[in-house]
Amino acid sequence: VDLTPEQRIGKQIYMRGFAASGGQMSAVLDEKGSAVSASILPCGGCHGRDGRGRREGAVSPSDITWDALTNPYDIKHEGGRKHPPYSNELLRRAIVMGIDPAGNPLQATMPRYKFEAADLANLIAYLHVLGTENDPGVGDAELRLGVVLPSGSGLMEMRAAIRGVLEAFERDVNDGGGIFERRLSIRFIEPPQPVSQRLTAIREFLGREEVFALIASAVAGAEEQVAALLAEHETPLIGAFALYPHTAPPLNRYVFYLLPGIADQGRALADFAAIRMTRRPVRAALITGPDDKLSSAAATLIEDHCHHLGWTVCERIPLDSPTPIVSRLEGKNVVFVLATGVTKRVFSEARALPQDLLYLVPGSLADFESSALSPELRNRVFLSYPALPSDSTPEGFTRYRHLFERSPAPRGHLAAQWTALTSAYLLMEALKRAGRDVTRERVIEVLESLYEFKTGLLPPATFGPNRRIGSFGVHIVSAADPVSYRWMEPK
Ligand code: HEC
Predict the structure, then answer these.
(1) Higher pLDDT, 374 or 463
(2) Rounded CA separation 180/134 (Å)
(3) Kindly report the CA angle at 343 between 338 and 349, in degrees rounded to 5?
(4) Please, what's the largest Cα pairwise distance for the chain?
């Protein structure tokens, strides 16, 4: 739908509590509260961009799409508040005085507003069409997506590899007629590395490009902040890449990760060690890096799991501890290496260490060449990989090769390209199932219904209302032999 000029002003009031005309707008949150600017309590903040209302804690803002307001007994809206149909006049009364059509007061969590008459009329004109507009990034002939490439001067080739294969994907989809007659248009951003600058750049990018969703985006190092930014913009991200996926409650509905982070990998490695050591008491050590919040939270989860497994000792050894690591590993029989740039150092001291010590290392933190280890040591080092080339199916690989051949991307970044493409495939599947009248909410719902969905490149993906990591399992790989030794999936 095209908005009338009045509705356009009304939309601004709805979304931002503000109108260019400069009319005064204020809101009172509870009976005794004082008036604040309506820009602090815009309608959209509680009722959502689409007006359907998102429950948050004990507060459940009503569905205030026109359909719901005027057909309150419609079966679709079952579960919402019950009230006779609204008219413009009754709606005005609800917004200003907090009284519904039956004359009942609305809860105090619904603010009472003061608007100038013209602004209130514009707002109500907009409420007539609220929720029937397209989401950002969805045009008649185009669907816009965004990609946040990894930052850092050392990753130039990897960026080119990701970009190249996604551009080939975009061409491929568009040559095949697009998606529901819309061309796919992928916008890329290479943000600067420092976290605060990166966030500003991503915020500007979301504002400027108005993308429907992000795919295949690097969030490592700013997991929490990016997740919060996306929730604020109601922008889904399919394929967030991070060592420490931000999945702690409350769940961020917008961010979908494909693979497990360090915490889940560590737990799978612990389960693996528990199988190997059934007959001995386990005394474990966790070597952790410079103390930052995310890696420390991951270490705590792994520790909890070790206690849950009934291990005798589970001791954390910070890398910067004053005593040499070797002396602190005495008497241990399992060691987790949970920091980068450590394995080499530990192995160089390993000769002095117990001969039965089992080393467990998430693959993404490993910094050594297996060939540099003694054959004896190699047999005691195990790495976890959430995905291996052997996870691909012949069809998946053929499809990848077809795209790769059409792109000038540099070679040698298979993992980055496969995760990027998997993100794109997942979103395409969700778009197909959502149909032409696609919304972000619908895409999230569809993704939440995917069960063991095979993309042909990575292990199958499952999401759900409370699940945001597509595949939890890891391959355990022995340093002595680079093929998958065992597939471990946390229970
Ligand atoms: C702080 C959160 C919040 C904000 C901001 C807010 N609302 Fe509400 N609104 C609610 C809640 C919660 C309810 C449900 C109240 C109840 O169940 O009694 C509600 C109910 C309503 C209803 C009544 C629907 C029904 O079921 O009878 C209307 C209409 C409404 N809001 C419109 C608006 C408009 C227009 C704005 C902006 C000018 C707005 N609201 C801003 C939280 C909010």
Answers:
(1) 463
(2) 14
(3) 125
(4) 83
Q: Using CA positions, which residue lies closest to atom 9 of ligand 1? A: 110
- Hunting for tokens 């298979």 — which residue is that? 414
- Is residue 395 predicted with pLDDT exceeding 90? yes
Sign, CA torsion 12/14/18/22: positive
The residue nearest atom 22 of ligand 1, judged by CA position, is: 62
Query: For ligand 1, which residues put their CB under 6 angstroms from it?
Result: 41, 43, 45-47, 59, 61-62, 64, 81, 83, 91, 94-95, 100, 106-107, 109-111, 113
Report CA(47)–ligand 1 centroid distance (Å): 7
The burial of 35, by beta-carbon neighbours within 10 Å (0-12 exposed, 13-18 middle, 19 or more buried), is given as: middle
Residue type, 120: L
Reply yes or no on whether the pLDDT at 289 is more than 90: no
Among 146, 150, 80, 92, residue whose Cα is nearest residue 117? 92
Kindly state the tokens that stand for 463.
């999401």
Compute, in angstroms, the gap from residue 49 CA to the centroid of ligand 1. 13
The one-letter amino acid code at 380 reads R
Q: What is the mean pLDDT of residues 100-120?
A: 93
Ligand 1: residue whose CA is nearest its atom 34: 43
Computed from CA positions of residues 311, 312, 318, 319, in that sequence, does the dihedral angle turn out positive or negative? negative
Region of 22 on the Ramachandran plot (φ > 0 left; ψ -120 to 50 alpha; else beta): left
Which pair of tokens denotes residue 135?
């989401």
Q: Which atom of ligand 1 is nearest to the CA of 94?
A: 29
Task: Give, in degrees to the nearest 5, the angle at Cα 122 between 119 and 123.
Answer: 85
pLDDT at 166 over 70: yes
If you search the block for the tokens 């360090």, which residue do you land on? 262
* Residue 77 reports pLDDT greater than 60: no
What spacing in Å lies between the alpha carbon of 111 and ligand 1's midpoint? 7
Task: Give 11-32 pLDDT, tens digit per residue.
Answer: 999 988 988 778 889 999 877 7
Nearest CA to ligand 1 atom 32: 95
How far is the C-alpha of 471 from the C-alpha of 387, rounded, in Å? 9
Torsion, Cα 362 365 371 376, to 10 degrees, reads: -50
Burial of residue 313, with CB atoms counted within 10 A of its CB: 0-12 exposed, 13-18 middle, 19 or more buried: middle
- Closest Cα to atom 36, ligand 1: which residue? 43
With 90 as the cut, is the pLDDT of residue 401 above it?
yes
